[in-house]
Amino acid sequence: MKEIVILSGKGGVGKSSLTAALGTLLGQDQTMVLADTDVDAPNLHLVLGAGLVDSSPVSASEKAFIDRDRCVGCGLCRDVCRFGAIVGESGPVIARYSCEGCGACAIACPEDAITIRQVVNGRIDIMQVGVHRVVSGSLGIGESSSGRLVDVVKRRAREQAGEIGADLILTDGPPGIGCPVIATLKGVDQVILVTEPTPSALSDLGRVVEVVQGFHLPLGVVLNRADISADGRGQVLRFLEERQLELLAEIPYDPELPRALARGELAVTTRPDAPSSRAIRHLAGRIGTLVGNTGRTLRMHRA
Question: Is the pTM of this model over 0.85?
Fold first, then answer.
């Protein structure tokens, strides 16, 4: 079984819609699990039209709790908290959304009035689309430990893959380069980075390339909306040449793609002969070859 993750660095470049399109095409020939590790704003299931099978709360965070019967109001806990999570003049109060669960207050408390406990900070949804499973994580509003929740999503995705005998786990990763991205990269076989020919997208592409190369993972780049800026396209191609990164596909701008999404459809199925659909289908063919032959890899740069 192979695990491929699709990242972007910058949000809004078409990562989720590309993941959904590739999942739809690859799912015609093999059983797969699609995972959404963008736990702050999961939307892959919306693009796919997946139906909910099971939902369960997740405790992947810790918070401080004060025992009022033992607290003497000395304020030492407030003095050592570096997150400003303990407030109140007459007696300490934990500001839940500021608490990181570091435990400094519990150590400092002379009355052992503070304990660190696990709390529910999100949920995991298991969904079905056709014969395939979708595993999605959702972080609670204002909650922390997004990276730990991503770990749970990945573990559940592997469990689901084992249950249905999946050949592939295709993951729609989060934007940026923070903890959720790093957690998403652990244990994967291939990374596909999506960008567009704009200055901000190129800047963020450079940052996420450095992160992926830090994990020594093979990676390749997809240039989405490739024809919206000739100058921007040239800058991206020069960046890839300088970094010796392979361009896996160029997908031309197609206004029908967002229109199809608004209708709950994917343009790769409603307009299979469109230039954008042909480019995505070519990329899916390359990935399908990778999954079908475990002795081969996509011809990607390995850091």
Answer: yes
